[in-house]
Amino acid sequence: MTRDLYRTVRLIRRFEERAIEFVRSGEIVGGIHPYIGQEAVAAGVCAALRPSDVITSTHRGHGHVLARGADPARLLAELMGRESGLNKGRGGSMHAADFGLGILGANAIVGAAGSIATGAAWAHRRQGRDTVAATFFGDGAMNEGMLLEAFNLAALWRVPVIFVCENNGYATTMPVASAVAGSITGRARAFGIPAFTVDGQDPEKVLAATASGVDRARAGKGPTFLECTTYRFDAHHTFEHRTRLTYRSTEEVSAGWSRDPVEIQGARVAAAERAAVDAEVEALLDAAAGSALGSAHPDPAAALEYLYASPEVMR
Amino acid sequence: MTRDLYRTVRLIRRFEERAIEFVRSGEIVGGIHPYIGQEAVAAGVCAALRPSDVITSTHRGHGHVLARGADPARLLAELMGRESGLNKGRGGSMHAADFGLGILGANAIVGAAGSIATGAAWAHRRQGRDTVAATFFGDGAMNEGMLLEAFNLAALWRVPVIFVCENNGYATTMPVASAVAGSITGRARAFGIPAFTVDGQDPEKVLAATASGVDRARAGKGPTFLECTTYRFDAHHTFEHRTRLTYRSTEEVSAGWSRDPVEIQGARVAAAERAAVDAEVEALLDAAAGSALGSAHPDPAAALEYLYASPEVMR
Amino acid sequence: MKLSYLKALNRALGDAMADDPAVFLLGEDIRVAASSLTAGLLGRFGPDRVLDTPLSEQAFTNFATGAALAGMRPVIEFQIPSLLFLVFEQIANQAHKFSLMTGGQCKVPVTYVVPGSGSRTGWAGQHSDHPYSLFAHVGVKTVVPATPADAYGLLVSAIRDDDPVVVFAPSGALGIRDDLDFGTLVPVPLGVGRVARPGSDVTVVALGHLVQDALSVADELSGVGISVEVFDPRTVYPLDVDGLTTSLARTRRLVVIDDSNRTSGFAAEVLAVAAERCEFDSPPRRVTRPDGAVLPFALALDRAVQPGRDHLVTAIHAVLEKS
Amino acid sequence: MKLSYLKALNRALGDAMADDPAVFLLGEDIRVAASSLTAGLLGRFGPDRVLDTPLSEQAFTNFATGAALAGMRPVIEFQIPSLLFLVFEQIANQAHKFSLMTGGQCKVPVTYVVPGSGSRTGWAGQHSDHPYSLFAHVGVKTVVPATPADAYGLLVSAIRDDDPVVVFAPSGALGIRDDLDFGTLVPVPLGVGRVARPGSDVTVVALGHLVQDALSVADELSGVGISVEVFDPRTVYPLDVDGLTTSLARTRRLVVIDDSNRTSGFAAEVLAVAAERCEFDSPPRRVTRPDGAVLPFALALDRAVQPGRDHLVTAIHAVLEKS
Ligand SMILES: Cc1ncc(C[n+]2csc(CCOP(=O)(O)OP(=O)(O)O)c2C)c(N)n1
Ligand SMILES: Cc1ncc(C[n+]2csc(CCOP(=O)(O)OP(=O)(O)O)c2C)c(N)n1
Ligand SMILES: [Mg+2]
Ligand SMILES: [Mg+2]
């Protein structure tokens, strides 16, 4: 597990670094919201899930999708808008989904996915399965009414869902203290949901906290809320690489880097093993890049394919 | 004050009873949401306000509007869709407003008015006034995300607003326990808002609680939340007089009546004085009914008057 | 046997639930069936399939999307039409978009029903909207049945359809009763209109409760030698363009009566399609709510802003005179 | 002096704030001016008049309504067009309805600005909408400026107007730069269109960034002897019907290019108005997004569902051939 968690955070980190390069080179159009710095959250949460569980993700979603086991080549191809992409190039960075792995999609509307995950988890339980859903969102999402409504539904109906708040200190440029009155866990507790603050830079701590929430959920005891305190090392979105926005100091960013999840977990792995993992990851990402770059662009004539699931009534 | 509070609850009670008769006779079209049983809340809250303060109201709003000092004749005329109505017959029961008295309107969308009141209170303070806003809503509204978002804005920006939750046990037919996970005051507290549960059948207790919230607000200390526990003695809406809905027992309703705010406050007033108030109220409502029934119906040709405040650009 | 429109909707729900265990209902006060839409269904199918929700429209709409992604077929009742404004993002931007955005990995078969859309006498400004054109514009399948048989048949088809579908049941239609043999109730395909009354001088396109008005105007005008064809598209989106143009090819004159606002409403679309594809003997006309309409409370004012029979008669005379 | 469209909007905000202390701004990340719309305004007017909001779109939209009821003139920036779906109730059912519902007791002068509406390259399905037709349908005043001068002038007029007004600034227009003397920037009245280029064979109605495309197509076609008139209504609602019909009386041919969906969109309204009031030499045409369009991420697919110059040229040839 130690090694696996390291591999996951390392994979996400290197994926993101490469993706940023592809944004710079123009292979990825529209930019991305880098997950760099927050890798431990995705890694820890997803390590606590079973294959039959489901997740929803966010605009900053690559980490969640990779930690859940999606093929990096297909995720990268998605970011490049290729036919072999997870969503056949139709979704891009903010909508990456892999229903085969229970990834019900990243969502570009902050706060929207919590209620979707709650509905999915409820439905699975109704169908007699012991599925648990994990739904990721940021500190900014804590101010979206529709997410707060979802807490209520999940608590009332004891839905097996883990609410994972990645508190990275900012919603774009808005500091959490200026945006969230009261406390983040206090909000969840107000709905009767057990809520815990976890060190979101440490994958093992995240895993442990998630695992106990998952146990509760599977035992029919309803939702758990985790506030994972973390830090976004890079830009809100790659557009910020061009437009410098002044909302945090370079000192603050350096301090953030001092608790790098890749280093924290890496320190737990023997040097040789770590090197082996790094090499394996690099090879995987080399192959992924090759595969994505070599993948066909979708045919513009099929631009509206999949628009309707029951297209037969359309005319 | 004892007498004034009694007069207010009595006025509201008798107004509602007469309004229900006018619904039955067809003079009021579309029915009303009776406030019977909850009079102490409106009476107590509004007694704590100054003339320069503002309120927002709900679908069950007659009590708030009367307690705030609106002319019963003009409120009744509004319910009858007459030109002399508060809104010139354009609003009806669910939209009664009197901007001259700081009544920014009843609102037919549950949970909507809290953020409107917050904005108004903030604007008054920005303009250098010491206005406080009181905003009424039900227990059902506690589950509307937009209201929860308003709590956050009010708390963050220390807006002088009193959030008055009238917990009458039901949202239409939905019992509060099946609808609100956690507790009502706990939800407000989670946003850092001081929150208190008050006996909503006793106008003096409501007044006292509101008064200290108003003091806090005027002193620049931000919002206060009051959960006024109360009970709706009559139907959710007069349509329920025709369609019997089975969501509460007659025993429960009788138990509710045992704590009648009119009796609770009436017992504090000497019998003779009480009789005098009752007579005065009756005369006032007789006159109001006469005035409303005698008032002109608006001209259908003017159906779209007031649609735009700047109509000159319309063509 | 007389069957009311509202009862037909209720029957459609019951049949759909009996047919497919994936169908379940959620909404406000649906267990006691405050609107009567869900009458008897709690007893028949139990609380697991008839969920009373807190007043959390946004979350429960997305909840339904999530349940649909997991294989269910949720049906949501919305008590009042303006609740659709409140969940517009959840329908137009979430439920509708999942299929394409995921490259066809999933489907979102949710049905949204508003029993009592449009003006409900005395409910005033915020409870009297008829926003079907909005859903048509964003491309969500949208139906507005006019008769009990269509109410049954279109609701069943909506539930069986793999995409989100909004079903508007106009308050002016809920009380309509028709003599029907229950055995004749069948699914009605989405996207297929019907000629509610054949005629040769002018095509009147009408939806929902206005179909009745159009039929009675047609009756009345037949007395003065005017032959009105009433075309009921039934589905607002996708529009039955073939049915419409076939009718217009015959009559070469068009009036649309539509309970939504004029600008960029359903009637605008019908006129646009007709202008693109048909030849006319006179300019077409729209009878609609006025632009920006907010329904005033006072009854006479409320009625004054709704499209009615008088306006329809005037418009029909106008298109006939102009030829 | 070269002035960009985005800078013109920024200047309009600054001038409006300087003119009237009741004007204030709220929105997400507007203090650091993430979108550049509000650049420099925090420094100039202070944090009391430039409010960064939490991600609580519904509450802050109603908050603005409340502030407007108390005499302020709030301007809200929305970062992405689909946020307007999220606050549709708060605009269409609250802000818009207060004046009539209260019998004229109050007004709600709020301006909603989306700097970057429509497709933003690579932002995909949930960030690429162009929902101006929805606001026109419900009767909320709506503008889509095409040039820097109009961006300035319409935003100033929107802020001064006593009703809610939505200002769409298409992402395809933000970068347009014109040579302008700042002294010539003046308010542009709502509801008045302009002939962007006179012509005699066909009227092309275009909005926002598509005006550029229409003008360049007009240029191109003038080379083959086709004289295209480009009419830019500037305001979607209320539509400048006189300006439109005057143009059509001259050209008797119509093509509308419109970045909203086809069904019941802006183009449908233009065709409907034209069909009611004008005579044509050939059937009019619409060049729009397809119905139900969800913009796919891959660039070529995104472009394929947007109305473009090629489609416009084809449509112009079609209306000319058919005469
Ligand atoms: C409802 C909504 N409001 C605003 C936006 C624009 N937006 C995208 S990401 C973001 C900040 C989100 O902050 P947070 O939830 O803390 O997540 P983080 O970006 O920090 O991961 C904003 C404002 C959006 N996509 N959806
Ligand atoms: C947003 C919204 N959802 C639903 C409704 C329909 N509705 C009107 S009143 C009501 C119940 C409100 O309950 P509560 O807030 O407790 O107030 P009460 O009626 O008990 O005074 C409902 C569901 C509405 N008007 N607005
Ligand atoms: Mg954040
Ligand atoms: Mg209640």
UniProtKB/TrEMBL annotation, chains A, B:
Supply the Pfam families for this chain.
E1_dh
User: Which parts of the sequence belong to the Dehydrogenase E1 component domain?
Assistant: 9-271
Instruction: Please give the Gene Ontology molecular function terms for this protein.
Output: magnesium ion binding; pyruvate dehydrogenase (acetyl-transferring) activity
Xref: InterPro entries: DH_E1 (IPR001017), PDH_E1_Alpha_Subunit (IPR050642), THDP-binding (IPR029061)
Necessary cofactors: thiamine diphosphate
Q: Report which superkingdom the organism of origin falls in.
A: Bacteria
Which keywords fit this entry according to its UniProt record?
Oxidoreductase, Thiamine pyrophosphate
SUPFAM superfamilies tied to this protein: Thiamin diphosphate-binding fold (THDP-binding) (SSF52518)
Instruction: Report which residue ranges the record marks as coiled coil.
Output: none
- GO BP terms, alphabetized: pyruvate decarboxylation to acetyl-CoA
Instruction: Name the chain's protein.
Output: Thiamine pyrophosphate-dependent dehydrogenase E1 component subunit alpha
Q: Which organism is it from?
A: Kribbella turkmenica
